[in-house]
Amino acid sequence: MNTKLLIPAIAAVLCALPFLGLDSYQLHLIIMILIWSFVYTSWSIMGRFGLVSLGHGAFMAMGGYVTALAWNELGISPWLSVPGAMILAGALALLIGYPCFRFRITGHYFALVTLALAEVVRQVLVATRDTTGGALGYTPESHGAGGSLYALQSDDRLIFYFVALIVWIIGILIWRAVDQSMSYYALEAISEDEDASAAVGVQVTKEKLKVTVLSAMMTAFAGALYCQYQMFISPSTIGGIGLSLQIVFGVVVGGIYSTLGPTIGAVITLMLAEFLRIWMGTGVVCITEKVCLNLAGMPLFVYGIMLVLFIIFLPKGIAGACADQWLAFKSNRKVNT
Q: Running DSSP on this structure, what letter comes out for residue 18?
């Protein structure tokens, strides 16, 4: 399916949406979808080449917490701390990725290493509660009523809407840039056969590190943007294993090999999360007056079931399935004519 015209058309519709009478809640929901679309795009940039990371929650948490702590503790503007957080996330990805790629730790072993990374970062955030607020979360200090450009804060959701829209577009452009680079062909070859790729001169470790560091830095930026918009972060909302699994679920459902796949995945996961939140309320559902069930973990359970079903029946995700149907339709049309 040709997305050269589809993506600009979607962007144009999104530009017009705020002026069509959306209320504050609907605007908030779209902002969250755009931010998470960028997160999912960041993950899929490396995930589609077989580099399955279950630790991107660590990079997102690093972006959010470094930005918030630098502002609260040192008075450093997010204009400086956000690039710093991205550099730190890239350095952490390099530190974890180099020994893994150098010593051929791939597949599910690499996934387990990144899974451990997410949990280590979460435990550090919880353990340093005197500084980070621990499991209770952390709130960046407000720079004043109405917001501040210096602090990258605003009470006007319309401003954050267009910021999130621009960030979403940037994510799509980065995806396209990777697609059009020589690294794309190198990574495609590596995902098929590392030994054969190395034999023909592909620098396997270097190419893997490049895309991993890029993905980590993008995810850290998304974490910082999430922090500045929500003005609250916690290990459960911006980091940890649960968040990392949600990212993988969203990308697989939407379509890991499609430009718009992560965006479709973000729409589905956010709408599903809102439905479950409204349906469950406090998380306790009473069947009778005396029999009540605690469904606090229901979202992760639903994500897990849907992930298994999509891997079995729609391995290319919704976007991939639609693309295959479109190609089949065009082929049948040519045959009939």
A: G
Beta bridge partner(s), residue 286 = 292
216, 29 Cβ separation under 8 angstroms = no
Q: Which helix (H) or strand (E) holds 80?
A: helix 78-102
- Confidence band for 285, pLDDT divided at 50, 70 and 90: low
151 and 76 in contact (C-beta within 8 Å)? no
- The CA distance from 304 to 242, in Å, is 11
Q: SS3 of 285, please?
A: strand
Confidence (pTM)? 0.91
For residues 245, 269, 122, 127, the Cα torsion angle rounded to the nearest 10 degrees is -140
Architecture of the structural domain at 6-271: Orthogonal Bundle (1.10)
C-alpha pair distances (Å), 53 with each of 36, 49, 81, 230, 326: 16, 11, 25, 25, 30
- 207-229 per-position pLDDT tens digit: 999 999 999 999 999 999 999 99
